[in-house]
């Protein structure tokens, strides 16, 4: 699982060495599905509406797709067999421990909290009642782009290291050094 | 997205009336890998391509409608396969077959599906009669997201036909080693990927017992009509944290294995319906 050769996608327009996208779209799918050799997609997205006791950047451990949509919807034969299993796709900090990039720096990813994202329609802001409902369903925050990216990646046979950064915050230099190209 | 089916429900009914002058007492829609009533007498078969102008594109769905009768039972129509929202079909296309059944005047619609078990008391191969369903796949939710659907309780779908399934199922298992029918709430999700563990936990919190990617549109199509709809889920796996999840092949194998029990159940129900 080489982070070095990962595909890098940034939806926050903040990090060099990443492909920047304003939101998930067909071009993201094309990047994920292109033939460039990779086993991992590193995704940076915004985190909104963090639950109490959840602050700062998070590594995604799982997600709830609450968007009402799915990037794999379409005719069954166009992109190969559907129905990917989407469990154990997100990488944890522990999964990256043997990477040169992480152990030489004391694995900064392990300093991030892990959490479950609710993926909602891009642009949608949840009100307090909706946030409370999302928390009660197991989410720790919500974001717009990571969930469809992960589903497309899982379908392409890739693992995903997903980081969610609250608005107005940046990843630490150590984390950036770990995940940059 | 395929926005309109080439044919309408009225077109399909016109063709069905040419094939059979008798309106069947029931129609049965078979989901992924489910196989029942393979030996109907006086069977007449028409492909979905001919009937609806479309063929299903999912493995495990042959895409035919067969009209015939069981040895001692009434006339029945068996629809092998369905169109799904996750294939890119719109709501009118996904509900086309059910609407045709309603318009033809068939009084009973039995729906089947392959479903993942959420209820930890379930086992692979169990048959669950739907007592309720959650609509998490309606295209309207693309605008709002799923939260409005999560807020509302499941739709109660118990009726005379689901009661008949349970009653007949009970009689069949009485004195045999066969496991009783389960009854529970089905969550219909868009798909076409399987659920994450977090989603499974969410659905459990919402009191859903099984999850799949179909059936709800057909149930909704019968609302307010003279057709009574009931559904049976074939439990093809039970999501447990300690077990790896299988894929579509596992679903097809489990469906096939449960089909014998479902076949017995439907034959017995059809016999009862024929007497009514």
Provide a descriptive summary of the structure in words.
The complex is a heterodimer of chains A (181) and B (276). Chain A has one domain (7-179): Rossmann fold (3-Layer(aba) Sandwich). Chain A is of the alpha/beta class and 181 residues long. Chain A has helices at 26-33, 100-103, 128-136, 146-155, 173-179; strands at residues 7-10, 19-20, 40-47, 58-65, 113-119, 141-143, 159-166. Helices cover 21% and strands 22% of the residues of chain A. Chain A is globular and about 40 Å long. Chain B is α/β, with parallel strands linked by helices. Chain B has one domain (9-275): Nucleoside phosphorylase domain (Rossmann fold), CATH 3.40.50.1580. Chain B has helices at residues 9-19, 48-52, 91-94, 96-104, 141-144, 147-151, 160-173, 197-205, 216-222, 248-275; strands at 26-30, 41-47, 64-69, 75-80, 108-117, 127-136, 155-156, 182-189, 210-212, 228-238. A five-stranded mixed barrel of chain B has the order 5-9-8-6-10. The longest helix of chain B has 28 residues, at 248-275. Chains A and B meet through strand 4, helix 3 and helix 4 of A and helix 5, helix 6 and helix 8 of B.
Chain-wise SSE layout:
The complex is a heterodimer of chains A (181) and B (276).
Chain A: E1 7-10, E2 19-20, H1 26-33, E3 40-47, E4 58-65, H2 100-103, E5 113-119, H3 128-136, E6 141-143, H4 146-155, E7 159-166, H5 173-179
Parallel strand pairs in A: 1-2, 1-3, 3-7, 4-5, 5-6
Antiparallel strand pairs in A: 4-7
Chain B: H1 9-19, E1 26-30, E2 41-47, H2 48-52, E3 64-69, E4 75-80, H3 91-94, H4 96-104, E5 108-117, E6 127-136, H5 141-144, H6 147-151, E7 155-156, H7 160-173, E8 182-189, H8 197-205, E9 210-212, H9 216-222, E10 228-238, H10 248-275
Helix pairs in contact in B: 1-4, 4-9, 7-10
Descriptors for this entry?
heterodimer, A: 181 residues, alpha/beta, Rossmann fold, 7-stranded mixed β-sheet, B: 276 residues, 5-stranded mixed barrel, 10 helices
